Amino acid sequence: MDEKTLNKLIDNENTLNKKITFFLSKNLLVFQKPDKFEIKGHLEKARHNLEFVTDISKKKYSDWIITGCYYVIYHAVLSLILNKGYNSKNHDATLCVLIKEYFNEKINLEEIKLINKLFIDYNDLIFYVHSKNKRQEATYSTKYNFSVSLMENLIQKARFFVSKVEAILFN
To answer: How does pLDDT run across 61-79, given as a tens digit for each residue?
Structure first.
């Protein structure tokens, strides 16, 4: 999803809800009772992938670092949306639920509690979209060498994001 579409979904709740309804109608997004074991499993997979990208960063497989960081974030986000009663098989559907359930400027008591624990902010959403786009470039293009600073930055942000998700879900 590009940033323009992302901003439109963030700014317009009606557009966001229509998009979610579309994903539900196509069974790309389904309601699912939150399952603590599955939530924990997604977080364990995120941590496992994070360990993998950390290990391969020493060997400079930058295309796989980007792909791995994307899946670190994706599994962490899947744990968040499952915690809210959704399961997704589509990256854009997942992002829509993340925006709907965790990014909300209309603050109420539930959100204040969430903010108190740590909440998903705009920069985290932009990072999620950016890493998805970089993952596609790394996976499907013939380019395989990306800058070391980009790799280090992605790993650091992925590590921070997983810690943030754990704080949201378990604190």
So the answer is: 766 777 788 788 889 889 9
Q: For residue 147, give the 3-state DSSP assignment.
A: coil
Work out the number of other CB atoms within 10 angstroms of the CB of residue 127. 19
Domains of the chain: 3-170 (1.20.120.330)
DSSP secondary structure of 85-143: TEEESSHHHHHHHHHHHH--SS--HHHHHHHHH----HHHHHHHHHHHHHHHHHHHSS-
Spatial contact of 148 and 60, defined as CB atoms under 8 Å apart:
yes
pLDDT in tens, 122-155: 455 456 656 666 666 555 555 445 577 777 877 8
C-beta of residue 29 within 8 angstroms of C-beta of residue 88: yes
**Residue 117 has what pLDDT?**
34
Give the amino acid at 99.
Answer: I
Q: What whole-number distance in Å separates Cα of residue 123 and Cα of residue 126?
A: 5
Dist. CA 42–CA 131, nearest whole Å: 18
CA distance 164 to 126: 15
**Are the CB atoms for 150 and 62 separated by under 8 Å?**
yes
